[in-house]
Every structure is written in C-alpha cells, then in structure tokens.
Amino acid sequence: MILEDALLARYDSLLLDLDGVVYVGEQAVPGAAETITTAAAHSVGIRYVTNNASRTPEEVAAHLVRLGLPASASQITTSAQAGARLLHDQIPAGSGVLAVGGAGVSAALSAVGLEPIDASHPEVAQADVAAVMQGFGKEVGWHDLARASFALSRGIPWVATNVDLTIPVEQGIAPGNGALVAAVETATKRTPQVAGKPFPEIMRFAAERVTGSEPLVVGDRLDTDIEGAVSANLPAAMVMTGVSGVLDLWRADPHQRPHYLLADLADLLKPVPDLVWTSHGVSVGEASARVEAGLLEVAGAAVDAVWAAANLIWSQDREPSNVDDIAARFVTGP
Fold first, then answer.
1. Would you state the torsion angle of the CA atoms of residues 8, 10, 14, 18, taken in this order, to the nearest 10 degrees?
2. Which residues sit opposite 99 in a β-bridge?
3. CATH 3.40.50.1000: which residues of the chain?
4. Catalytic, out of 5, 12, 17, 304
5. Pairwise CA distance, residues 206 & 199, whole Å
6. Rg of the chain's alpha carbons, rounded to an integer?
7. Burial annotation 236-275 (CB, 10 A radius, 16+ → b, else e)
8. Quick check: is 19 catalytic?
9. Which CATH number fits domain 80-194: 3.20.20.70, 3.40.50.1000, 3.40.50.300, 1.10.260.40?
10. Which of 12, 81, 131, 170 could be 157's S-S partner, Cβ–Cβ 3.0 to 4.6 Å?
C-alpha cells in the first residue's frame, strides 16, 4: 500500500530514468521492481524516460520485464523518439536522415515517417541525406562519425539524442553519446540541437504521454535528469544509486537542484521528513546540519543528513572548507 504521508502520495505519475535508477546494466537496482509494481497497482502512471537511444521501446520494455518490472513499449520514452519528433517538424515527410547509433535511432525515425539511412553502411549517398540524427550505440565507430561529419558540412539539420558524456555500466562508468557528439562537433565546428535531457523536449514529450497530470521526475544525474526536470518546470527527486554523488549534490547549481533526495526508489513509499530551519542550521527528521566557524557538521541518518547539509550549503555565501572530508563519509551511498 501507499501511505498517506509517503512521497508518492503527492503525485499521480512517475517519469523514471532507467540507467542508475531502475537498473545498472543487466541488474535491477534493489527495491526498484517492488516499488514500481506497488505504484502501478495503485494506479500511479508509470513512464520510463531514457537518454539511451540505442534500443527500441520494445527492446527496453523486454529488458524491464526480464528484471521483474511492469512495462510495455507504450510506456517508454527515449531520446531517439524526442529527436525524431524534432526533425519531423523541420524536414518534409519521407526525407532521408543519416541514422548514427543503435536500432532505436532508426526505429524512431521510421515511426514519424522519415527514412533512416544507416551511417554504418559503406555506401551512403550523401545527396539523399536531408538531416543527421546521432544517438548512442555500442557499435558506433570512426566511419559512422566521419559520414555524419561529411553530411553536416552541407549545413543540414543535426539532432543529437543526448549529450551525456558518460553512462553507468556494470563494470563502471563508460563514455556516453556526448563523447561521440563532441568528436563530430570538433570535426564540423557545428553544434547540434539536443532532444534528450537536460533539454526540456524529452520531459515535455514524456509528461504529455504519461497517465496522470501531476508527475514526479526521478533520476540519478543532476546534469541530465534533474536539470531536465527543472527546465520543463517539473518536480524532481534524485536517487543515490547512480552517477551523481554527495559532493555533486552539495555543489549543484540552482538549475540542477532536486526537490527531494532518496536513497533509492523504495524511498518513494516512505514518509517525507520535514525540512526545518533552526537557529543552529537545518534539520531533516532526526538528522541535522550546521556550519560552525566555517566548518560543516552533520549528524543523523545518511540520506536525511546529506539533504539537510545540501540545503544549508546552498544557502551559504561560501562553501564550508571541510565538505570533501564530510562527503567522504557517504561515499558508498546513503
């Protein structure tokens, strides 16, 4: 059941990032399946929103089902879909688009009536290319990037599905689509339109399609998920199961600051402790944070202490000198 004072009781739908929130590689984040299943059973709208454009919605849904999650292709929003919608509004129906990336890029283009041209094919007819859409794909290589660069030299539209510099995988942190986009930027001296997070297009697209009118965005990356929610004027919760850590949170710019901090998705079903400003600092539940003689002091349960400290640090004119040492206490995640 969902408690009346649980965070999830405040919203009727969830826009969930995948990598680092629901799963990492082929492994589900502990508690994710149970939480999402409970939410769905109580008629909470569920939409999975991912910057990973390499797979089709059907492939993403099948992966989620294997992990024990309730999912169908109709519940998936990818940055490839958002990118294809951008190009659909800029070039005539049936136009050829050079598709750089995995199968999800081509599928999204076809779905909006555009003709994908495989960038990995050695015989690309440049005259047939009316635009370029670049998304992530593990098989993307130098030849794909070179063909994109050649096409872009003609000044045609260029959409990047996302510019995430890294992605979390089971073995650690690996280069993301942003690293590959940067290579083409260097070669062409051009900057793409970006469909995915942190730009608002994908969040607005997902919010339009989710069942419900009061969605909460949940993500692990401040520079994509949270900033994307802020840019689309949507409330956001950060989970500590992915890329962004304690120091990232404490040093976040205003446009990357979440409304809530969660250890993981299971915290959606728990009560939200009040954040209270006191004469000594900030308290969250039984946790507290204060600055004394320029030094940060925290006490209490990890997530609540980190959140209390975050709000306190954001209010300061100068960062406490010992934040690195204090953050190290939480390096393994709350």
1. -50
2. 118, 133
3. 7-51+199-269, 80-194
4. 17
5. 13
6. 21
7. bbbbbbbbbbbeebbebeeebbbebbbbbbbbbbeebbee
8. yes
9. 3.40.50.1000
10. 131
Beta-strand relationship, 275-277 and 282-284:
antiparallel
317 residue type, one letter: D
The pLDDT tens digits along the chain (334 residues) read: 788 889 999 999 999 999 899 998 788 999 999 999 999 999 999 999 998 898 999 999 999 999 999 999 999 999 999 999 999 999 999 999 999 999 999 999 999 999 999 999 988 888 899 999 999 999 999 999 999 999 999 999 999 999 988 876 778 888 999 999 999 999 999 999 999 999 999 999 999 999 999 999 999 999 999 999 999 999 999 999 998 999 999 999 999 999 999 999 999 999 999 999 999 999 999 999 999 999 999 999 899 999 999 999 999 999 999 999 999 998 754 4
pTM of the model: 0.89
The secondary structure of residue 273, as a DSSP letter, is P
C-alpha to C-alpha distance for 279 and 273, rounded to whole angstroms:
19
The residue count for the chain = 334
Query: Which CATH superfamily includes the segment(s) 7-51+199-269?
Result: HAD superfamily/HAD-like (3.40.50.1000)
Q: Which residues contact 310 (CB under 8 A, 6 or more apart)?
A: 249, 250, 252, 257, 261
**Tokens 């508690």 belong to residue:** 31
From the candidates 19, 164, 267, 304, give the one annotated as an active-site residue: 19
**Is 164 tagged catalytic?**
no
- The residues pairing with 77 across neighbouring beta strands, listed in sequence order, are 49
